[in-house]
Amino acid sequence: MPEEEKKRTQSFLEKLKEKALNQQNYGGDGTFEEARMEVRDCPNCGAGRAYRDGLTACAYCGFSFMDIKLTDGIHIKKSNNS
Amino acid sequence: MSQNQLLEPIHGISLEDYSAACAKLGNGMDEQAVAGALGVELPVWQEASLLWAERMKQDSTFEVITLFGQYFGQADQHPKFSNATAGASGGGGYTAQIKADRAFYEELEVARNVAYEYGLDGAQWIVEKYGIALGDFQIAASQWNAEIHADLQADFEGYSQRQEAYRAKYQQLFASAQGGNVADDITF
Amino acid sequence: MEEILKQTQERWFVFLEKLEARMEEMCTAAIPELKKVFEEDQDPFKRAHGRMLSGLLGQLRQMREKADEVREEKIIGTMYSVGDIAYDFREACYDRHNEFEEKLQRYTELLEETAERRDLEAFYQEQLAAFEAIRDKFTCKQCGGKITISKMFFIATYMTCSYCQTQNTFLPSTGAQLVLHQARSLAEQRTAHLQKAYEDGYPNDPLLYKQYLRAMFDEWNKIVPDMAAENEKFYLRLLKDNNIEHP
C-alpha cells in the first residue's frame, strides 16, 4: 500500500511539472532583449529630426510625427513640442 | 469638466485612451502597435503609461481608478482602436457571448481560477479553449462588476451556491485530466 | 453514546494523520523540484514556476476542503446528535484539526519560499554592471557619432546626438525595464528590518512607521532616481492615508 501511495504522488508531481514546463505562456514567451538605438527620419521628405525643432513635426516639410501636444513628463517636456 | 487635476491628459493621452490601450495590451496587442494607434511614438506612450499608473497611486479620492475601470470596459468603443485586430481573441462567438451573457462570464471566471489551482495558466486556458483573450475577459469583468456586486448584496446565498456548483464542476474536470487529486484515496 | 464518540474521534485522528502524511510526502518531493524549475525557468516572470507552485497549493487547498467537509458532516454532525456530553470530544477534535491546519500552513509557506528567496539585489547589481558595459557602445543612427548614455534608463527615451543634434530613440534592455518594476520590492527588502521594528511594536508606533516609510522611499528613489518626483507624491498620499503629519 505505501508503495502504491508513493507512486500516486510521484506520478502527480511528474505530470504537474511537465504541464508547468510545457504550457505556453500567455502572450508568448518573454525574452530578455538587449538595449538598442533607433532613429525615425521624416517618412515624407527624408529629413532627420533635430533636437531644436522638437519631436512632433518635421521642420522641413511640416509632416506630423505625432498628432498630440506633449506635456511635462519624466524625460519629455512641453518644450519638445515642435 | 472635473476639477481633478489628475485627470488631465498626459502628452495628449487621455485616461480614456490609456484605459482602452491597457485592454488592448491585455489582448496581446504589442506596445508599438498601441503607441501607433494612439498616434504617438514608443517613448511618449511609455512615459504616459507610467505616469497614469502613478496618478492612480497618488489619487486618494479613487476617482482616477474608478474611471479607469469604466473606460476599460468601454475599450471596444474607443475610436482610436476601432481598426485594431482582435489580438489574441479569435473574434469568435465566445468573445461576444462573455460580454452579453452574465452566467457565461461567471462560470468562466470560476473555471479560470480553478485552472490555476491545477497548475494551468488560467488566462492561456481560456484562450485555448474559448478563444477569449485576457483583455476581452477583463473588459467583460468590468462590465459585469457592478451587477454582480448588487446581486451579492441582494442574494448572497444564491450567488454562493452558483459559484460552488461551478467550482465543483471544474475541479472535477481538471482533476480527472491529471489523473485525480493526490489525496483522493483518503477517506474518513 | 460514549462508544460512538470514541470511535468517531479515533477515525477523525486517523483520517487527518493520513492527510498529513500525504501532504508531507508531496511537499518533500516537490520542493527540490520546484527550486530546480525556478532556477531553470527562462521566463522573466518565472511563470513555469508560478504554475507548478499554484498546482501544488491547489492540492493543499483540496486537502483542506476535504478535512473541512468531514468536520462539518461527521464531527459537528455527531456533536449535534449527542448533545451536551460532547464537550471533551469537541475539544479534542478541534485541537487536532488546528494542528492539521498549522501543518498545512507551514507547508504552504515552505512551497512559497521556493520563489521568495529570489535575490532582487543581485539581479539589480547585474543590471547595473550590464549597463556600465554597454553605455558607451552606441552610435547615432544618423551620423554615426558616438552617443554615451548619461544614466541608466528604464523606459524608451529620446537621446540627442551631440554632433548632428538628431533625436535617436534609446530602448533599454528587458533587464533594465524589469528593474523599474522590481524597484519597490527591492527597496522593501533593503528596509525590511525597519518595517519589522514597526510591526513588532505593541501598540504600533506611528513614528516607527514613518521612519520605515521614509527609508523605503529613499532606497526606492536611489534605485530609480527619475521616478523620485512621482514617488514623493505617492509618499505624501500614504502619510495622509495613515493620518501622519508632514513633515
Structure characterization notes:
The complex is a heterotrimer of chains A (82), B (188) and C (247). With 82 residues, chain A is mainly α. Chain A has one domain. Chain A is 26% helix and 5% strand. Chain A has one helix and one strand, in the order αβ. The longest helix of chain A has 21 residues, at 2-22. The radius of gyration of chain A is 27 Å and the shape is rod-shaped. The N and C termini of chain A lie far apart (79 Å). Chain B is an all-alpha fold and 188 residues long. Chain B folds into two domains: 5-81; 93-177, no CATH class. Chain B contains nine helices and no strands. Chain B has helices spanning 15-26, 31-37, 42-58, 63-73, 93-100, 102-117, 122-130, 134-154, 156-177. Chain B is elongated and about 65 Å long. With 247 residues, chain C is mainly alpha-helical. Among the domains of chain C are: 2-118; 121-174, no CATH class. Chain C contains eight helices and four strands; from the N terminus they run ααααββββαααα. Chain C has helices spanning 2-40, 47-82, 87-116, 120-134, 174-190, 192-200, 206-223, 228-241; strands at 138-139, 146-147, 157-160, 167-171. In chain C, the strands form two sheets. In chain C, strands 1-2 form a two-stranded antiparallel ribbon. In chain C, a hairpin with a 6-residue loop joins strand 3 (157-160) and strand 4. In chain C, helix 5 (174-190) runs antiparallel to helix 7. The radius of gyration of chain C is 28 Å and the shape is elongated. Chain C starts with a helix and ends in a 6-residue tail after the last helix. Chains in contact: A-B, A-C, B-C.
General shape of chain C: elongated
- Low-pLDDT segments, ≥5 res of chain A: none
Supply the number of helical segments of chain C: 8
Task: Give me the secondary-structure category of chain C.
Answer: mainly alpha
The number of strands of chain A is 1
Through-space gap between termini of chain C: 69 Å
Most extensive protein-chain contact, per-chain counts = A-C, 36 and 49 residues
The outline of chain A comes out as: rod-shaped
Tell me, rounded to a whole number, the average pLDDT of chain A: 90
The arrangement of helices and strands of chain A along the chain is: HE
Q: Low-confidence spans of chain C: pLDDT under 50, at least 5 residues?
A: none
State the end-to-end distance of chain A: 79 Å
Q: Percentage of helical residues of chain A? A: 25-40%
Count all strands of chain C and give the number. 4
Order of helices and strands of chain C: HHHHEEEEHHHH
What oligomeric state is this? heterotrimer
Percent of residues in β-strands of chain C: 5-15%
* Domain tally of chain A: 1
Structural class of chain A: mainly alpha
On the 0 to 100 scale, the average pLDDT of chain C is 92
Pfam family, one (chain B): DUF6620
InterPro entries (chain B): DUF6620 (IPR046728)
